[in-house]
């Protein structure tokens, strides 16, 4: 399912790239505009500035699909203008507005420790982001976000790179996807809360929703790991996933082709911070000049797809598809529905009543459980009391029997003593009479 979705997504991306290639000549590194990075204050100056070629941005206010009450088509007439009016500048106005406001783009880099996440980000944006290598002994998966202000020509981009830390390092990887899904959801939640505020400031709001997730796959040459499949499945409905085979230079070209075909993976990349002189220009490479060579890896295609062609599409899909799904589920969970004719206060009152009934039900259940437990305890105590009484009676009976026996033995002894005394007396009398006879 995940693979099918990815395949469809990549098909669309490839089609778009093909379409854009027809419209626009490929941009070589030498013709890129000036790039400024405020956080790292690195700058790369190039000779030529590119012609600003903005894609026409659809005006949502005029979009008929959003119009709640579209005019009947029969009432709209086409008129010819007899001179220049000036509303053909609308696209330019939009471009100017967007450029003034600046753009934001958030990337999640998800992959095992040391798989090459930071290196690829540096290679993609031709700079050096802050990064510290992580260790393999952390108990759980974490995410670390860093935001940078970049500028190329007059376009400002607020880029947030969210790095996974300790992903795939635990022995039990069952819940490794959870912190990632939670992070993505909490960014959606923050945006939704801002949207629901009475005083919204969406214009200046720092949108932290993840627009794209680069999922780094280990260059094993075998099939995908269970962790990869489970995580991608969980993220599929929440974010635009772009799976990439990392460190593609570490397996042979034939193995790589097989792996790509078997797992339906389009991008195999090599990252490097080193620059090598090729002819008269400098290119990123790992000693062998492979990074920016399309015969050896798909880095150029990935950069083209992610940054130069589809950045705006990825932002739009995040808002219109993934956030919309989150928002819909959340509002439905809160009891809202498009079909009922109730007002907001009615819905709120209904929800409050339902909550009260639920609470009452829980309270009743708890009371019942308490009564049952008390009764159980009472029966237990009664049984224990009965047992004690029985043991007491038994002991009393035993005691009485023993007392009776002892009294019988006492009586016997007393009888024996009195018999003995009688015999003793008789003996003394006999002795006295014998002595009397002798004296005579
Ligand atoms: N052969 C090869 N080595 C690479 C490639 N990309 C990165 N490396 C090397 O792999 C090591 C780790 O790279 P990082 O970019 O720090 O990896 P990481 O995923 O950011 O690592 P953590 O942030 O610690 O999880 C470094 O020594 C890089 O030079 C690649 O495409 N091919
Ligand atoms: Mg890193």
TrEMBL record:
Pfam families hit by this protein: Septin (PF00735)
SUPFAM superfamilies hit by this protein: P-loop containing nucleoside triphosphate hydrolases (SSF52540)
Domain (Septin-type G): residue spans on this chain: 101-333
Keywords: GTP-binding, Nucleotide-binding
Bias kind Polar residues: ranges: 31-41, 418-434
Positions of the UniProt region annotated as Disordered: 20-77, 417-440
CDD domains named among the record's database cross-references: CDC_Septin
Keyword GTP-binding (UniProt): yes
Bias (Basic and acidic residues) ranges: 42-69
Stated family: Belongs to the TRAFAC class TrmE-Era-EngA-EngB-Septin-like GTPase superfamily. Septin GTPase family.
Protein name stated in the entry: Septin
Upper classification of the organism: Eukaryota, Metazoa, Spiralia, Lophotrochozoa, Mollusca
């Amino acid at each position: 399912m995940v693979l099918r979705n990815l395949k469809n997504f990549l098909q669309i991306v490839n089609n778009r790239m093909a379409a854009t290639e027809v419209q626009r000549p490929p941009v070589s590194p030498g013709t890129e505009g000036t790039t400024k990075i405020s956080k790292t204050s690195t700058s790369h100056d190039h000779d030529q500035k590119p012609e600003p070629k903005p894609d026409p941005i659809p005006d949502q206010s005029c979009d008929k699909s959003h119009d709640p009450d579209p005019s009947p088509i029969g009432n709209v007439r086409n008129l010819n203008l007899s001179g220049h009016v000036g509303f053909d500048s609308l696209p330019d106005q939009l471009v100017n507005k967007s450029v003034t406001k600046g753009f934001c783009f958030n990337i999640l880099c998800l992959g095992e420790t040391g798989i090459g996440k930071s290196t690829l980000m540096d290679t993609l944006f031709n700079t050096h982001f802050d990064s510290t290598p992580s260790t393999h002994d952390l108990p759980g998966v974490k995410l670390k976000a860093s935001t940078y202000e970049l500028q190329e020509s007059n376009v400002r981009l607020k880029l947030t790179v969210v790095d996974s830390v300790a992903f795939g390092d635990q022995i039990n990887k069952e819940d490794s996807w959870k912190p990632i899904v939670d992070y993505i959801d909490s960014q959606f939640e923050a945006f939704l809360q801002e949207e629901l505020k009475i005083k919204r400031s969406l214009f200046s709001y720092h949108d932290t929703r993840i627009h794209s997730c680069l999922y780094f796959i280990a260059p094993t040459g075998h099939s995908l790991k269970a962790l990869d499949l489970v995580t991608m499945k969980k993220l599929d409905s929440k974010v635009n996933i772009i799976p990439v085979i990392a460190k593609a230079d570490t397996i042979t070209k034939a193995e790589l082709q097989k792996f790509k075909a078997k797992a339906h993976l389009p991008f195999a990349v090599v990252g490097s911070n080193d620059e090598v002189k090729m002819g008269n220009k400098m290119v990123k490479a790992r000693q062998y000049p492979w990074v920016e060579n399309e015969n050896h890896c798909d880095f150029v295609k990935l950069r083209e797809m992610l940054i130069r062609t589809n950045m705006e599409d990825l932002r739009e899909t995040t808002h219109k598809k993934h956030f919309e799904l989150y928002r819909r589920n959340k509002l439905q969970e809160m009891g809202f529905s498009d079909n009922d004719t109730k007002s907001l206060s009615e819905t709120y009152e209904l929800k409050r009543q339902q909550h009260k009934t639920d609470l009452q039900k829980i309270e009743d259940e708890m009371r019942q459980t308490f009564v049952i437990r008390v009764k159980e305890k009472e029966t237990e105590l009664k049984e224990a009391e009965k047992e004690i009484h029985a043991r007491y009676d038994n002991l009393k009976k035993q005691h009485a029997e023993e007392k009776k026996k002892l009294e019988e033995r006492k009586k016997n002894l007393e009888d024996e003593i009195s018999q003995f005394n009688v015999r003793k007396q008789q003996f003394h009398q006999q002795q006295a009479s014998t002595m009397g006879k002798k004296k005579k």
